[in-house]
Design a protein that fits this description.
Length: 233
């Protein structure tokens, strides 16, 4: 029995160790169960079936419903003065949509946000536009297809916290030199607003074109021109 104290110590130590293990294990089990519950809830909320292919397209407002839509081709308030879309929904290729979403988050930090004038434009709609205005200075021929027809371009502006557009000097789709990035004979406020839009979009990887302050596109991936037309709810 000389070894009794030593044996007792070993026994006590081993009990302590196993009790810690049990506690840790039970904690882990509880954690896992609660994470699964949260996931189940999320899945249940998203159960409404999508009416488009999410591998091909992302509906922009599904990423952030505070992005304002003012899709002019779904109204008569556009340069052809005719409604071109049966209804206004903003779809983009998933990688492009995520970039626009990030731009909106950057602006949100400044108390601002994005307003969309146009997103993906199906080729059949491009054809309708071309039939009305067969002039390559204003409309890209449907045979060539534009970045909008590929779901990789957006027409947009910045809004303040009240949803009012920042002054950009011209309307969307104003086809004159005043709409060009290179045109500098504008109030300082306008130049600053255009610069903010340009720097924000470039920060998320979208590129400007010289002639339209409202147009940005993603050139990091080659997409097919698409004929898909979204459904109206
Ligand atoms: Zn555009």
């Amino acid at each position: 029995m000389k070894n009794f104290p030593l044996l007792l110590l070993i026994f006590l130590l081993s009990c302590q160790h196993s009790s810690t293990t049990i506690q840790e294990t039970s904690k882990t089990v509880v954690k896992t169960a609660s994470t699964k519950d949260v996931e189940k809830t999320k899945v249940a909320k998203k159960a409404e079936p999508l009416d488009y292919s999410p591998t091909q397209w992302t509906e922009l407002i599904s990423l952030d419903s505070t992005i304002i839509l003012d899709l002019r081709y779904a109204t008569e308030d556009n340069f052809v003065k005719e409604q071109m879309y049966a209804c206004g929904r903003c779809f983009l290729r998933p990688r492009v949509a995520r970039r626009v979403y990030r731009a909106h988050q950057l602006l949100k930090k400044k108390g601002l946000g994005l307003k969309m004038f146009d997103c993906y434009r199906p080729r059949p709609i491009q054809q309708k536009l071309w039939d009305k205005v067969p002039n390559a200075n204003y409309v890209t021929p449907p045979s060539k297809g534009s970045m909008h027809n590929k779901g990789a371009a957006v027409d947009l502006t910045i809004v303040n916290a009240d949803g009012d557009e920042l002054y950009m000097g011209t309307e969307f789709d104003y086809f004159g030199k005043e709409g060009h990035h290179t045109y500098q004979d504008l109030p300082k406020e306008v130049l600053a607003n255009r610069r903010l839009l340009k720097s924000t979009m470039e920060e998320v990887g979208l590129a400007a074109i010289r002639t339209e302050w409202w147009h940005y596109s993603f050139k990091g991936q080659a997409y097919e021109i698409s004929d898909w037309v979204w459904k109206c709810k």
